[in-house]
Amino acid sequence: xxxxxxxxxxxxxxxxxxxxxxxxxxxxxxxxxxxxxxxxxxxxxxxxxxxxxxxxxxxxxxxxxxxxxxxxxxxxxxxxxxxxxxxxxxxxxxxxxxxxxxxxxxxxxxxxxxxxxxxxxxxxxxxxxxxxxxxxxxxxxxxxxxxxxxxxxxxxxxxxxxxxxxxxxxxxxxxxxxxxxxxxxxxxxxxxxxxxxxxxxxxxxxxxxxxxxxxxxxxxxxxxxxxxxxxxxxxxxxxxxxxxxxxxxxxxxxxxxxxxxxxxxxxxxxxxxxxxxxxxxxxxxxxxxxx
Length: 291
Hints:
single chain, D-Maltodextrin-Binding Protein, domain 2, 9 helices, about 290 residues, Arc Repressor Mutant, subunit A, two-stranded antiparallel ribbon, about 40% helix, about 25% strand
């Protein structure tokens, strides 16, 4: 027997009329009769009592009507789930990201994913760039957002966009956008930055900014976490240089002055990952940044 034969049986069990059932199922009456006879032969029991005028279920037929109705409901749900998994309409996605995108790219991305794929479960991990590639290789992440293109042949990356760096100051600082001319004007100030000893493209960008103005910053505090840096600047403990997207979620007590230097944002993932969920999120990212 197969599921289609069971569907024919259940349709006949509801209609109790061979001609009406055959018309409803878009087959001939003789074909319907053959399917029912094949079922009865395989089961070894009559499922219908029939004469020239009437068709009715036997006790065995009534029992199977109840059991097979539940079976088909379960089978349909299983098949639907399999189709959704194949199309990437359901599944899990683990995204690693720097703190800055939590204030800009990430909320818009998650809103679009929730709209398109409401059955996804998304896990977010704020992670340092130095740890992101290993987290991908260990399958702790499916996708990374970061400021550095990958050079590992086992990974793929895609440039999503660029944004300016900004000088971050306490709100009470005397310098304003109108009076700012060059970063050399704050060379004697204390800074709160990631460790400039780290070997990442993001840190390379920070070093290049200071090199362009020919001075080494006086680093008061080192931190790799943007939210921490913003709060420390707000307390007047130093200045910082950060991607402009941090301005979207900054606490009270900080101001921003745009600098003529940019940082990039990349999506990064395992090259051999053929997950339809991953492909769907990459398509959403591509469409979002193409606008």
